[in-house]
Amino acid sequence: MIVCVAVVGHQLLEDNKYGYLTNTKVKFILVTTDLDVRDADVRNFFRRFHSAYVDAVSNPFHVPGKKITSRTFAERVSGIVKSFGLSSAG
Q1: Which GO terms describe its cellular component (predicted)?
Q2: Which end of the chain is more exposed for a tag (fewer CB within 10 A), N or C?
Q3: What is the pLDDT of residue 7?
Q4: At 51, which CATH number?
């Protein structure tokens, strides 16, 4: 199951890639062009993202294996992504 996909374009960018595997074998991948990322920020990102994912798939109206269509999930993920790395800024 694909949770998030981002298309950057045809630009050649340097990036860092991080992976997270849940105990149920769900894989999350974080790709960032910020080359100065703290490990604590990555761990916090995955912890928060995993929590949002678990809440979304635990919804009794969610069909396992299908796309997550929850507006709450989308808003939580948006907030998590927007706040990524802010604790190390400035």
Answers
A1: cytoplasm
A2: C
A3: 52
A4: 3.30.450.70
Tokens of 12: 């050649």
User: Which pLDDT score is estimated for 89?
Assistant: 47
Burial class (CB in 10 A: 0-12, 13-18, 19+), 44: middle
For 81, the token pair is 């992504």
Residue type, 44: N
pLDDT, one tens digit per residue, over 10-51 is 566 678 899 999 999 999 999 888 878 899 999 999 999 999
The phi, psi pair for 20, rounded to 5°, reads -145, 130
How many domains would you assign to the chain?
Answer: 1
By residue range, what is the domain housing residue 12?
3-88
Cβ proximity of 54 and 78 under 8 Å: no
